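re: that chain from earlier
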Amino acid sequence: MRLRPLLLSAFVGLTLSSGNAWACSSCGCTLNTDLGSQGIVTGSGWRLYLRYDLVDQDQLRSGDAAVTPPPLPTSQEIEQETRSGYTTLGLGYGINRRWSLDLQLPWIDRHHSTYAAGDTVLSSSDSDSLSDVRLLARYAGFANDMSTGFTFGLKLPTGSHDTTFAAGPQAGQRLDRSLQPGSGTTDLLLGVYHFDDFGPQSGWFANALYQHALTESDGFKPGDTVNLNLGLRYYWGDILTPQLQINAQVRGHDTDPDPTGHLSSGGRVLYISPGFTFMVNDSWHGHVFVQLPVYQQVYGLQLAPTRILSIGMSYAFR
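^ sequence. v structure.
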């Protein structure tokens, strides 16, 4: 069983460790399907990949517990549901075995509904637009086998942050900044990773990613985010590779002119993520994963998902 095909089938997609990465507050968008940090991108050439993530935040939480919505009206906002579909198109280029570049173009389709403070009728919004573009570089030359490296780059303020409610008492009013397609800020991205094999049929990987906003937008600045990922994989032939990830995220409070937005932002999440990758041929690869919460601790009152679905395909030009 050759090592290269096994590694190629390990992970496809792109780095979304970011939960954050998107404007999903503490929803836990932390799944790692980064090609380079898994040992897949080891040479020169172009890659194209497409990934879709479905995040349905429908569980109201305070601290580390789910809560029942209080009777209406209330003195604070009570969110009902935030359902987000993230479609990310990525283009990667391997300069050589040590250096590679990635461009990530995320598109968000989001429905949001909430009871504003004092309201007894739902307000809702729908957005379908480009989010914040990411530019990443990777260096993998710390070890002869390219198993240890770091990533660095920027998240650019390309997504809009002026989406308004379309229906309900709040129609025409802007959504909270954490629910906008873009943050309006330029963020620094720094990461490290390592991968290895236990033997001929199994392996592991670990990576960390730090995100910090370098600028602010109209007084808003997203909180610092740290994502940690540990993964195990079993090489089940040359086609199918079962995977298991543990994904953790810690995010600080946002800086927000709205004190309610400041208090109800940030938190800590821990997910277990079973799934598998498959290899159609030497160029085509795919993945299917589901993230399941093990621990969720949010600041203030926030919506959280009970599961996150991720699917993707990758094509390597040869």
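The two ends are 22 Å apart (CA to CA).
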